[in-house]
Design a protein that fits this description.
Layout lengths: L2 H4 L7 E9 L2 E8 L5 E6 L2 E6 L4 E8 L4 E5 L12 E5 L2 E8 L4 E3 L2
Antiparallel strand pairs: 1-2, 2-3, 4-7, 5-6, 5-8, 8-9
């Protein structure tokens, strides 16, 4: 994604990414090889934040305009990184989370 759209420009030798939620703040921590950490903070518009379960695989988010988005939870995408929360966008009308066995749970 273009850094102008994402607001993130990790210009060092990035090795891992961690995400921390703090109230309405979304903090991304980038670790770099032979360099210091980079922190990116963004406030997000969210109805609420959902705690993910250990076997959640992905979510389907439906929006007011009829579009849908699939959000995959990539366990192990960085060093010991496991996503822990899903922020539900303000304009979402439904959210369904699926686990690795295909079982679904409706959140919204």
């Amino acid at each position: 994604m273009n850094p102008l759209l994402s607001g993130i420009f990790a210009d060092k030798d990035a090795k891992a990414l961690a995400q921390v939620f703090r109230g309405k703040e979304n903090i991304l921590i980038v670790s770099n090889n032979n360099s210091g950490l980079q922190l990116f903070k963004k406030n997000f518009n969210s109805k609420k934040t959902i705690k993910l379960l250990h076997d959640d695989s992905f979510a389907i988010v439906s929006f007011k305009n009829g579009k849908k988005q699939k959000i995959e939870f990539n366990y192990g995408s960085g060093y010991l990184f496991i996503p822990s929360r899903l922020s539900i966008p303000e304009n979402a009308v439904s959210v369904t989370i699926y686990n690795f066995k295909g079982k679904e749970r409706k959140i919204l």
